[in-house]
Amino acid sequence: MLRTIQEILFQDAARLTEALAIIPSSARIEIQCLLQQVLNVPRAWLLAHPEHYPNETEQTHYQELLQRRLRGEPVAYLLGEREFFGLMFKVTPATLIPRPETELLVELALSRISQQDFCRVLDLGTGSGAIALALAHARPDAKVLGCDASTTALAVAQVNARQLAIVNAAFIHSDWFDAFTARKFNIIVSNPPYIAAGDPHLARGDVRFEPMSALVSGSDGLHDIRHIVVQAPDYLETGGWLLLEHGYDQAAQVRELLQQAGFDVVFSACDLAGIERASGGRIA
């Protein structure tokens, strides 16, 4: 039976709220996003046409997307895109979904990128390229390089660079620093895997559908961060910065790792929720 937009919003937002235990306002926004995708219309059009009946083909397509969402598949994967730092990025199941809390890492890097002198930035484990491209877009005079061990993720990053017409960012295949020799950078940023194997959060929410290789890092979640911190001094110019995103309860451990590796001005920064979400240090 065909339903109006108003009926779809009311009925299916309630279904999402119950099935996924999300708040009703978020469920309604998700249903609107699915309808916008199917009907190829802006949100304002949906709000202005509550009595419109999507045709049978449109409703069938919408039902397919809804069923996938009810099973927990992230909206970003259903739509194939996600906004990050004011830019729209293509995302696929080969990449992590860019999240608002990671914008803190971008802000910390931007505050350390000189607007007068040439700056070389490395984004380790770039995924969709969101961090690298956000930095390159905000600082067109900087040279940004993103690397990833996943060739499928790199392909997504390269598509994003072309779609956003960002020319001062490039992407290469590398498992952390493996592809580098004597190259030095002024800033290294990374949102590496930092969830412990066996963490119960891996069985909940969006992360069930995201690549485990981009999420899990050893028994305590710090395996990759240790690797990066130990090797980063060899790839940083004097006075260069290493900036890392990490788990909500890992800040003290990451600061200790940075200090042990010879970094100074070691710090942690809080996200909008007041959680220490990123840490960094400067190499003397």
Written account of the structure:
The chain has 284 residues and is an alpha/beta fold. It folds into 2 domains: 68 residues; 191 residues, Rossmann fold. Helices cover 38% and strands 20% of the residues. The strands form 2 sheets. Strands 5-4-3-6-7-9-8 form a 7-stranded mixed β-sheet, sandwiched between helices. Strands 1-2 form a two-stranded antiparallel sheet. A hairpin with a 2-residue loop joins strand 1 and strand 2. Helix 1 packs across helix 2 and helix 6 runs parallel beside helix 7. The longest helix has 16 residues. It is elongated and about 65 Å long. The termini are far apart. The mean pLDDT is 95.
Give a brief description.
This protein is α/β, with parallel strands linked by helices. The chain has helices at residues 5-20, 24-39, 43-48, 56-70, 75-79, 103-110, 130-138, 151-163, 223-231, 251-260; strands spanning 81-84, 87-90, 120-124, 143-148, 169-173, 185-190, 236-245, 263-270, 276-283.
Task: Write a concise keyword list for the protein shown above.
284 residues, alpha/beta, Rossmann fold, 2 domains, seven-stranded mixed β-sheet, two-stranded antiparallel sheet, 10 helices, 9 strands, 38% helix, 20% strand
